[in-house]
Amino acid sequence: MNFLFLPFIAVLGAEPADFKIWNLGQQIFHHTQPAQVQLKALPAVAPHQQANPNLSEKCQALLTQVIGNAGDLDSRQILWQDFKVLDYPILLNVPQDAALLVGHPDPPSAYVPYQDAHLPPGLPMAVLEGGLSDAPTMDFDYPVNGRPVFLYEVDEQADGVFRTVVHERFHIYQKDWKPLLMALPGDWQEPYPVENVENLAMATLEQKVLADALSAATPLGIRESIRNFAAVRQKRLNLIPTSAYVLELSEERSEGTARYVEALADEEIYGNNAREQIAFMLRTKLGVEQLQKWRFYATGAGMALLLDKKGILWKNKVENGLSPWQVLRSNTPIDDSEVERRAQLMKQRYHYDWLLANAKELVEKYKTEKEKAWQDFINAPGYRLKVHFEGPPGFRNSGGKIYQLPEGWFIVHPNELVVSSLNTRLELHDRSVLNGPDASSETYH
Ligand SMILES: [Zn+2]
């Protein structure tokens, strides 16, 4: 990604004059969707006889499933061009247990070298017993002995860590790509049209057609379904502003291809069919909240898989500045009248009237909830948190929703707040930092 922004936080007292601005450090962050596929269990991991130092079962499983499987994929070079997961040092941190440093040529002295005959030969490994404390949960350029490493704090099962490491490691690989040929027009001042009912309905239709295209079996079926998808998308794109279009291209290029690589790795190692994984995501009910980020993991990955299916050589083009949609569209020769005809046909086939009515309902609900959240925000006493991002927030683990206000402002819930945007991430784990003399933790919205 080629955007660099700093978020700032303003803590509001009763009057705007009380604004206090804090600059936050910048951190690149992406997160994968929650797992949406069934995972096959791997055979139990045999204990390592020569473990030195002794590793917990959890750490042994990490080495086998994450590093061992990644080494297997790297040796076969099947994910993407010359991309290799283990070409960049990785540090898996299990707090209170151990930090596993893999592929670092010169580990710090506190790290004890570790040998394992089951893992890729020639790959240096070292272990910091007890793990790291006070380290970020994720960092693409975490410095270890003067060398940047990919740091990831493990808080899930080893198979989930494997998929996440492949996905996030691919984002590091993407840093060498040329920028998207269409840049965002200036500051992100025009929010994504989340309240556009027709866009939501057409996006839902688009995902259904794309999911079915992934299941098409014959060359004719594939060709037809790609044309149908391209027609629906082309019609939908007429509904949104350029800034939203560029945002879509950008997200599908970065997150879509990362999800594509993750899906292929998952298929190779755990046997979960990549096209079925992505079709499942595409068929999951689409809400307003997924519109400006989450759905592009699946649409981008879906188009990537279609390009493969059609035998189009597309990866160089993406690395050189195009998004999967641009490559797919330029390989889909349908003119305006055919776009019109096919879009109409798809509307009939997938009961567009119903999709539209459903989208209307979802948008109305969103608007009502937003109005209530805004009133709560205005009326609550005490200090409040206001966050400005140069793009749509993509992730939260707080209980509440995020609501979009004009000009890039959002209402968020700082009850253990985590929000990330294009290249920024805000984490707030200790609400007491916001406590003014009279504020209590109940007053934040
Ligand atoms: Zn990502």
Structure description:
The strands form three sheets. A six-stranded mixed β-sheet has the order 5-6-4-3-8-7, with helices on one face. It is α+β, with helices and mostly antiparallel strands and 445 residues long. The chain has eleven helices and 13 strands. It has helices at 57-76, 158-174, 197-215, 219-237, 242-270, 274-283, 295-309, 315-319, 324-330, 336-349, 352-379; strands at 8-12, 20-23, 90-94, 98-102, 112-113, 125-129, 138-144, 147-153, 384-388, 403-404, 409-411, 417-420, 425-428. It is globular, with a radius of gyration of 23 Å. The longest helix has 29 residues, at 242-270. The protein folds into three domains: 8-30 and 380-443, no CATH class; 57-174, no CATH class; 197-357, no CATH class. α2 (158-174) packs across α5 and α4 (219-237) crosses α10 (336-349). It binds zinc ion (ZN). Residues 30, 167, 171, 255, 258 line the site of zinc ion.
Give a quick summary of the entry.
By secondary structure, the protein is α+β, with helices and mostly antiparallel strands.
